[in-house]
């Protein structure tokens, strides 16, 4: 592995990394000490709102390649936290991701995950690891809508069933490290019924909602700021803890959904 270039945004730094076979992946430094690493080259989920799956799935990363992203970047800047939230879904490369997780934990790093929650059996395994946070991308509770925006993310009800099974056995402290991700898209999944349903599920499960803001990568549109605030206030009024998208997740460089497999090196 080698570092090809560093692209600087207003807040984030994106590290373009070339693998031994010539494929390229991306890792992002945000908040000054947190490295978002990739787990696959490309992504088989191919969410409609994310650039990472445009080329589909190319291959899984090895555990050494996952850890190697940390090793490359930590030579330049100290890293305290790892987010398995870059290109790919951690659960779809679970054997290698879990091996990398334990390697990173031995280095005294805090490790968190972003995932669709599919396959559910692996989600069950993930929730029981000594992680520092798991965010599960729900985005819609309606099977047809969810299939439209997340065509290969599995059945949402089976994912919720695993959460209903596992979360009650966890302490309140551990449960607070789990959240449901919801990215409202204009005219797609932003109806009052959808907002109400997501809030109800989060309240029943005793978890928070991570309310993401869409970084536009295609012809889908984000909700306007006023609607985003209304959704936030509605879910919060239901007694659910809501985390808003930070400036780092909105940055044009390395913001949520903007990472691309095999990006060309800038001249």
Number of strands: 12
Tell me the strand percentage band.
15-25%
Proper CATH architecture of the largest domain: Alpha-Beta Barrel
Radius of gyration: 17 Å
Number of domains: 2
Mean pLDDT: 93
- Class of secondary structure makeup: alpha/beta
CATH T-level topology of the largest domain: TIM Barrel
User: What share of the residues lie within helices?
Assistant: 25-40%
Main sheet: strand order: 1-2-3-4-7-8-9-10-11-12
Report the span from N to C terminus.
Answer: 20 Å
Number of helical stretches of at least 4 residues: 9
Overall spatial form: globular
As an assembly, this protein is: single chain
What is the H/E order?
EEEEEEHEHEHEHHHEHEHEH
CATH class of the largest domain: Alpha Beta
Assigned CATH superfamily of the largest domain: Aldolase class I
Stretches where pLDDT is under 50 for at least 5 consecutive residues are: none
**Largest sheet: number of strands, sense, barrel closure:** 10 strands, mixed
Describe the structure.
The structure is a single chain. The chain is an alpha/beta fold. It folds into two domains: 1-112 and 246-267, Aldolase class I (TIM Barrel), CATH 3.20.20.70; 116-245, Aldolase class I (TIM Barrel, Alpha-Beta Barrel), CATH 3.20.20.70. It has helices spanning 63-74, 94-106, 120-127, 143-149, 156-166, 172-175, 192-205, 225-237, 247-250, and strands spanning 2-8, 13-18, 24-30, 34-37, 40-42, 57-60, 81-84, 110-115, 134-137, 178-182, 208-211, 242-244. Helix 1 packs parallel to helix 2 (94-106), helix 3 (120-127) packs parallel to helix 5 (156-166) and helix 7 (192-205) runs parallel beside helix 8. It starts with a strand and ends in a 17-residue tail after the last helix. The model has no long low-confidence stretch (mean pLDDT 93).
């Amino acid at each position: 592995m080698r570092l090809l270039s560093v692209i600087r945004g207003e807040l984030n730094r994106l590290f373009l990394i070339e693998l031994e076979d010539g494929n390229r992946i991306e890792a992002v430094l945000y908040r000054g000490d947190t490295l978002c690493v990739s787990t696959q080259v490309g992504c088989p989920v191919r969410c409609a709102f994310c650039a990472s799956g445009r080329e589909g799935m190319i291959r899984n990363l090895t555990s050494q390649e996952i850890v190697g992203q940390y090793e490359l970047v930590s030579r330049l800047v100290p890293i305290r936290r790892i987010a398995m939230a870059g290109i790919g879904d951690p659960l779809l490369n679970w054997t290698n991701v879990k091996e990398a997780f334990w390697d990173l934990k031995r280095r005294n790093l805090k490790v968190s995950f972003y995932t669709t929650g599919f396959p559910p059996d692996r989600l069950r395994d993930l929730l029981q690891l000594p992680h520092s946070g798991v965010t599960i991308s729900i985005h819609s509770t309606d099977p047809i809508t969810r299939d439209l925006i997340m065509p290969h993310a599995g059945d949402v009800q089976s994912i919720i069933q695993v959460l209903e099974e596992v979360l009650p056995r966890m302490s309140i402290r551990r449960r607070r490290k789990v959240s449901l991700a919801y990215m409202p898209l204009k005219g797609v999944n932003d109806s009052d019924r959808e907002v109400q349903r997501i809030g109800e599920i989060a309240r029943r499960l005793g978890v928070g909602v991570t309310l993401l803001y869409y970084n536009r990568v295609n012809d889908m549109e984000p909700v306007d700021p006023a609607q985003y605030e209304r959704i936030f206030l509605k879910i919060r009024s239901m007694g659910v803890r809501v985390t808003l998208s930070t400036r780092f997740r909105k940055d044009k460089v390395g913001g949520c959904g903007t990472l691309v497999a095999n990006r060309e090196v800038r001249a």
